[in-house]
Amino acid sequence: MKILCIGRNYAEHIAELQNETPDAPVIFAKPDTALLQRNQPFFLPDFSQDIHHEVELVLRICKNGKNIEEKFAPTYFDAIGLGIDFTARDLQSKLKSKGLPWELAKGFDGSAPISQEFKPVAAFPDLKNIAFRLEVNGEVRQQGNSGLMLHDFSKIISYISRFITLKMGDLIFTGTPSGVGPVRIGDQLAGFIGEEKMFDLAVK
C-alpha cells in the first residue's frame, strides 16, 4: 500500500507557513514504515528539535484506478479516517532552503499515525462538511472542515491518478488546517471527527 499526502490544501495553513498558494494539489509520499496504528505512542526522533503535528482527514482507496475522472472519483474510496502528518519542521526548512526534496522531514518512522477505525463514506451526509479537530492535552489546537479544502476529495483522487495508479488499500492524507505546532514529550494527542474520538496517543 501507498501513503500519499496533499500539502497546502487549506488557505489559512498556507498563510501561517508563508507559502505560495499552488495551482494544483501538492503531492508527496510517506513509506508504509511511517504508519503508526492502534494508538501506539509516538517517540520523538533524535534528528529534529521541532516536530509539528498536522491533523488530516484520510481517505481509504477501495479499488484500483488510473486517470480517474472527477465525477467517478467518489466510487474509489469507501471510508474516511483521521491521521497526523508529523513533520520535522527544522529539517524540512533546511532541505527546502537548499532546493532539496523534503521526504526525510515527512516520511520518517512513525510519522503517520492513523485512526484504527475508518468510518464508511455512507456515514457522512455531506462529504463537503466534515468537521474534525486535534486536541493536545485537552486543548483544541487545530480545527478543520472538509468544506474549506482548496481541492476536494474528488479533485485530489482524479489529480493523483493522472500520475500514480491508485490501488485498493492506499491511504490519502488530504491536507491540514491552520494551527500546526510543536509537540513535546508528555503530550497527549486526541483526534476527533465531529464528536467521535478517532485516536488518542502519547508523545514519548
TrEMBL record:
Where is coiled-coil annotated? none
UniProt KW Metal-binding keyword: yes
State the Gene Ontology terms under molecular function: acetylpyruvate hydrolase activity; metal ion binding
Keywords annotated in UniProt:
Hydrolase, Metal-binding
Q: Which domain of life is it from?
A: Bacteria
- Please name the InterPro entries in this protein's record: Fumarylacetoacetase-like_C, Fumarylacetoacetase_C_sf
Q: Where is the Fumarylacetoacetase-like C-terminal domain?
A: 2-187
- Which Gene3D superfamilies does the record match to this protein? Fumarylacetoacetase-like, C-terminal domain (3.90.850.10)
Asked if the keyword Metal-binding belongs to this entry, the reply reads yes
Q: What PANTHER family has UniProt attached to this entry?
A: ACYLPYRUVASE, ACYLPYRUVASE FAHD1, MITOCHONDRIAL
State what protein this is by name.
Answer: Fumarylacetoacetate hydrolase family protein
Organism expressing this protein natively? Hymenobacter lutimineralis
